[in-house]
Automatic annotation (TrEMBL):
Keywords: Cytoplasm, Hydrolase, Serine esterase
Species per Swiss-Prot/TrEMBL record: Heterostelium pallidum (strain ATCC 26659 / Pp 5 / PN500)
Pfam family, one: Esterase
Similarity comment: family membership: Belongs to the esterase D family.
Broad EC category: hydrolase
Protein name: S-formylglutathione hydrolase
Location(s) in or outside the cell: Cytoplasm
GO terms for MF: carboxylic ester hydrolase activity; S-formylglutathione hydrolase activity
InterPro entries named among the record's database cross-references: AB_hydrolase_fold, Esterase-like, S-formylglutathione_hydrol
Length: 279
């Protein structure tokens, strides 16, 4: 599988780069950003994946989070994938911001016509994971994952479904149960039988997670306009019921909204949290 370099720039002594490649599981070209700390030229480095929210591309986090200075300081590579396939040309793909482009929801679609392209779960946890592992000077067994909103949910389910693959997981304002925010997308991708969505439901998966002790950090703003469809209490309750395997730190942040100003405020905490598990 070959990577095409689209752009590169020095940043905090390291480099921010954008690549494209042909995705087998999504059957289209996919783009992603990485941040490579300067240390990668001498030693293999750990990796931290960031999954973005609905409407984002691979660019939002790189340009708006202020994360790169902390990844540079901690010697961690960042990988920022896109949020959906692009170019599938499926009817209705651009009609609503909660379905299709920018709203892949990190699941593998089972329903046609989506199943040929919308396979973001396999893309993140397998195809791009393997591509990154073979293309960069990384420590393969030191990888962690975090995300925002839809991407926070994607990070949680990726960690719950793959014990040992990610050393730690964190999220900003994650969707904790996709039943409402993801209703449009998941009905199209997985069908109308909501019991079939449980395999991608963070609050369901948290209850049954068994594996190495998983440390989770979540920050949630109290002034988040989307709070009513995030269901944080379901994740908190599920993690409490499985406290033998999961250690959740959940911070309610007074007055903060859902956006990247909120992410920017707490990004250092999240990178330090992951650094402790990776370094
Ligand atoms: N277009 C929507 C708002 C979309 C939005 O707020 N998206 C969030 C993620 S929401 C859950 O996944 C986001 O990250 N946006 C990108 C950004 O750079 O802020 C509307 O009009 O309400």
């Amino acid at each position: 599988m070959s990577l095409q370099l689209l752009s590169t720039s020095k940043c905090y002594n390291g480099e921010v780069k954008r690549y494209s490649h042909q995705s087998k599981c999504n059957n289209c070209e996919m783009k992603f950003h990485v941040y490579l700390p300067a240390t990668i030229s001498k030693n293999a480095v750990p990796v931290l994946w960031f999954l973005s929210g609905i409407t984002c591309t691979d660019e939002n986090f790189i340009t708006k989070s202020c994360a790169l200075q902390f990844a540079s300081r901690e010697g961690i590579m960042l990988v920022c994938p896109d949020t959906s396939p692009r170019g599938a040309g499926i009817e209705g793909e651009q009609a609503d911001w909660t379905l299709g482009l920018g709203a892949g929801f990190y699941v593998d679609a089972t329903n046609e016509p989506w199943s040929n392209n919308y396979n973001m779960y396999t893309y993140i946890t397998s195809e791009l994971y393997d591509l990154v592992s073979t293309s960069f000077n990384i420590i393969k067994d030191k990888q962690s994952i975090f995300g925002h909103s839809m991407g926070g949910h994607g990070a949680l389910i990726s960690a719950f479904k793959n014990p040992s693959k990610y050393r730690s997981v964190s999220a900003f304002a994650p969707i904790c149960n996709p039943v409402t925010f993801g209703e449009n997308a998941l009905t199209h991708y997985l069908g109308g039988d909501k019991t079939k969505w449980d395999v991608y439901n963070a609050s369901v998966l948290a209850k049954s997670y068994q594996g190495p002790q998983l440390d989770i950090l979540v920050d949630q703003g109290t002034a988040d306009d989307f709070l009513y469809k995030l269901y944080p209490d379901q994740l908190i309750d599920a993690c409490k019921s499985n406290s033998a395997n999961i250690n959740l730190t959940f911070n309610h942040r007074e007055g903060y909204p859902h956006n990247y100003w909120f992410i920017q405020t707490f990004i250092e905490d999240h990178i330090v949290f992951h650094s402790k598990h990776l370094n």
